[in-house]
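Repro:
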Amino acid sequence: MNNNANLQQLAHNLRKRLDVAPNDLDALADLAAVLASSGQIEQALSVLLPAVEQNPTHLTLRHNLAELYRNTGETNKAEELFTALINQQPLFIPAYQSLMLILSHRLVSQQLTQQQARDCLSQLAILSNNKGNALLEMGQMDAAQAAYSEALSYWQDYPSAHSNLSNVSRIMGEISKAETQARTALALRPDFAEAWNNLGTALSEQGQFAEAINCYQRALAVNPNQAEAKHNAGSGSLFLQLYRDDLRTAQVVEAHRKWGSAFKFTAPVHTVTASDKLRVGFISADFREHPVTYFAEALLEKLNRQQFDVICYANQTVEDAATQRIKALPLLWRPVATLSDDALCEQIRQDQLHILIDLSGHMKGHRLYALAKKPAPVIAHWMGYPFTIGLPAFDYHISDRIAAPEATAQTQFIEQLAYLTGSLFNYRPIADMPNVSTLPALHNGFITFGSLNNLQKLNRSGVAAWSQILLSIPNSRLILQTKLLADIGVVGRVRGLFEAFGVNAQRLDLRPASVHRFNTYHEIDIALDTFPYTGATTTCESLWMGVPVLSLVGDSSISRQGASILSAVGMAAWLATSVTDYINLAGQHSASLNSLATLRQQLRIQLANSSLCDEAAFAVDFAHCIKKMVEQSLR
């Protein structure tokens, strides 16, 4: 059957489909496209024109009409329609592509003046840049990056395309390119708030925190309403302080206290009273595949529904399999990302909660500006941010006595401490993680250390300690794996840091993140925890893969997460109390391969049988903590 016969058969089938369902607009659009392809232009128009008139918001009908005009030479009509489509639906990618074809054809086929040619190229650049924005919003990173690069091929000095290319490159782990593109955008347009913000974020991911905060402040000086820079320069800058090894804990606490002191609230009159069944809300931007959910999902599932009504306030636009699992639980799901602060507060008040538990802290996507208005009678924080929040409206921080010892912690928290009996962590391993391997040192003949922590946690103090460990243990190696190590510039910087402390680059294995990251543990004998910002999710994953973690116990909750986890698993022998102790313990634990091999084979079972993985007991413990906080507020 030739192509014309195929088109005729397809048109016949579509007409039959329309006989059954005459209001099937997608079938109408397809029929018109088939008729146009077979050269039946008038018939295609007779289908499309009345359909578009009756259904002016249907994207495919309007797009097919515009395409028909484009293919028949009525480019003015086509251009007008494509432009209207993009304005109506910025995520409708085909309209960008078709409009760019019109402009590209005009550029090569018509005798344009120099000014007209420049205008046409500018239009192409703007369209390609905006297409990149649409693709980025849809999560198509590679395509977005290509679109921004295409925009620059039309207009080399286009600041927005450079800035947007910086943003998407950072997301993709190309951090050196992100920094370069942001600086290029600023060289072209020094008053570009978005570019200052993008430069700040690129610098912060490289551990240049002071410089990053300066960039955020420059962004705000240009545009005080630039939302992301406003977060990064304020609340977000507090989060960056947790990574720094040049600040004392008291300084970081004071910075949080000072930030929070700007938010005064008049205590609202709450009508909620004591009840046998409490209404508890959880608010987060991370009810998805995210470290917070790895610890919170089991609690949301196991919390006794005879004692609690559960409401989840989801401040997120992205949903995935983890989101769907949570939404399927017996709870009330409230999407709140589009609500203003006042509207969110009103919704929380209407829900008449006894207690609201925040899971974000100062992390991206938080709603602290709303919570500062005290929309619930009791507000507590758990899990998302291992430090004080600093807001007077927060009553409690939920922790444990190892992460936040009573003797010292109260001076480090603006909130009261609400203590769980066991660890504040409740770990549910990701399904289908690989089996534990044999100890790699047995066949390698040398010890391999490793860390899969966020590279922002690796500072000069950490590099100095890890270098000393490598230098003190002959032939030992270090594997680092994280997203930013996809960037050759970052790799060079990390190598340079270790070389400055005398470590030959050949002893370093620097790898980008991988979907198969758990297999990397098959090559690691001992995991080294970062400090002062110790690991949590990464520590649990390492233990599950049979790899013991060496952690340095500091003087703040952020530096004692590892202590909480390892203590719960019965691994206090892997906790160091000083940098010298940390280095010495690495040597001691490396000395006996037989002991390491035995520990490796039993560690997953040891973790599974520990309180860290006892979901039912944790839910009971957490329920008791909730009740105690609510009871104290009602006195």
